[in-house]
TrEMBL record:
Protein name listed in UniProt: Adenosylmethionine-8-amino-7-oxononanoate aminotransferase
Gene Ontology molecular function: any one: pyridoxal phosphate binding
Organism: Dyella tabacisoli
Entry's family note: Belongs to the class-III pyridoxal-phosphate-dependent aminotransferase family. BioA subfamily.
Coiled-coil intervals: none
PANTHER family: ADENOSYLMETHIONINE-8-AMINO-7-OXONONANOATE AMINOTRANSFERASE
Length: 454
């Protein structure tokens, strides 16, 4: 590295000559700063000029126990001395075996088989294909469609995007995608005046029943993000919807896929969001926090019944022939094991409950803000819905990019806040302190005042 070219400006210039960043209109960087990060410390990121940013979004919801966490780092360093990678077809290794055993132990009962992949979208692809292939192996090849919730987001590979309903991501590629059957989201924000979250859930379950009565014969699975539809705007709903959904899937003989990629590992107040409805899905997709934010890894857990539908003589042609070159990477598995060990050794969920309560207290005064339609929270996820007209819940025009103003204000005041459109949200690492939460909220409130004026 050239020591004369290691400040923010020089690194940004080098970046913009060659790199193409995700979820970004690169033209924006004519005015929006590119921020080169050189190291992380706990909940903080430090740029090449020494400025610090409190990571209020856990670096896209991945970091649980802080940047450069020493326990996870030490586990990775030890693994580097023995095995970095090996083909996972016909070969195995102890980190993957231990990880599978631990995931089976901590997830809802009945999820006894673990298929490893590289990232969240890949996990969704695996679950969709595995569900369809299960029915095909059972002689039910007509069950080749999926039911997803309106406003849902499950990833950006073609299969994952096919069961997503966020127009920003889906619209351009619609000609390439499968067409899902959309069920109305139980999003409590969309409830009628005076309607409780539980009542919204019950009403939406009735509408889902109608869809299943019409389409169950051709449906492989219903796929949902339990409790929080994250990229769709941090929309939240009552756990009773999941309870009723599990019953409907049983009644109509379709699979239930729980996308816990963003909401798993303590984000919603329990280790897994499905626990709050006391249900076990047929497929559970995990990623993001699985490795504490260190390395890409995902896992799909499923039942012994699903596994046995593929278990046959080679000549039967029933094998699940899906692979990734880095499946079961030992380094990623070891990082995941170190992450899960922290959950075992420390009172993570108890501490999170205290932090979540503090966050709720600090956000409460914003309920009276004339441009805040709702503050909603599930565990360590909180969101503020900014609107142009509070009485009518009229959104700001998307082209005004009010959320971008909050983001830029945050960068100027040592905070990484990256709103989803006009939804300002918090999903911080679990190592954050109450004082650091105060800083995030103070910056967000000032950023909101700045964003909605004029």
């Amino acid at each position: 590295m050239n020591p004369l070219a290691s400040n923010n400006r020089s690194l940004a210039e080098r970046d913009l000559r060659h790199l193409w960043h995700p979820c970004t209109q690169m033209h924006d960087h004519l005015s929006v700063p590119m921020v080169p990060i050189v190291r992380g410390e706990g909940a903080w990121l430090i740029d090449a000029d020494g400025r610090r940013y409190l990571d209020g979004i856990s670096s896209w919801w991945t970091n649980l126990f802080g940047h450069a966490n020493p326990r996870i780092g030490a586990a990775l360093k030890a693994q580097l001395d023995t095995l970095e990678h090996v083909i996972f077809a016909g070969f195995t290794h102890e980190p993957a075996i231990e990880l599978a055993e631990e995931l089976v132990r901590i997830t809802p009962p009945g999820l006894d088989r673990v298929f490893l992949a590289d990232n969240g979208s890949a996990a969704i692809e695996v679950a969709l294909k595995m569900s369809f292939h299960y029915w095909l192996n059972q002689g039910r090849g007509e069950k080749n469609r999926f039911i997803a919730l309106s406003g849902s987001y499950h990833g950006e590979t073609l299969g994952a995007l096919s069961v997503s309903d966020v127009a920003l991501y889906r619209k351009t590629y619609a000609p390439l995608l499968l067409t899902p059957i959309l069920a109305p989201s139980p999003d409590a924000y969309e409830g009628e005046d005076g309607e409780s979250a539980a009542s919204v859930a019950a009403r939406r379950l009735g509408e889902l029943r109608t869809l299943l009565e019409r389409h169950a014969h051709e449906t492989s699975a219903v796929i949902v993000e339990p409790l929080v539809q994250c990229a769709g705007g941090m929309r939240m709903y009552h756990p009773s919807y999941l309870t009723g959904l599990r019953a409907l899937c049983n009644e109509f003989n379709v699979h239930l896929i729980a996308d816990e990629i963003a909401v798993g590992f303590g984000r919603t107040g329990t280790l897994f969001a499905c626990e709050q409805a006391d249900i076990a899905p047929d497929f559970m997709c995990l990623s993001k926090g699985l490795t504490g934010g260190f390395l890409p890894l995902s896992a799909v857990l499923t039942t012994q019944q699903v596994y046995e539908a593929f278990y046959a003589e080679y000549s039967a042609g029933k094998a699940f022939l899906h692979s990734h070159s880095y499946t079961g990477n030992p380094l990623a598995c070891r990082a995941a094991l170190a992450t899960l060990q922290i959950f075992r050794d420390e009172p993570v969920l108890e501490r999170n409950r205290g932090l979540a309560a503090h966050l709720a207290t600090r956000l409460a005064p914003l309920r009276d803000h004339p441009n805040v339609a709702e503050i909603r929270q599930t565990g360590m996820i909180a969101a503020i819905e900014l609107v142009q007209n509070k009485a009518r819940r009229q959104a700001f025009p998307a082209g005004e990019r009010r959320g971008l103003r909050v983001y830029l204000h945050g960068l100027e005041h040592s905070a990484l806040l990256r709103p989803l459109g006009n939804v300002v949200y918090f999903m911080p690492p679990y190592v954050i302190t109450e004082q650091e939460i105060d800083h995030l909220v103070d910056v967000a409130i000032a950023g909101i005042h700045h964003a909605v004026r004029d």
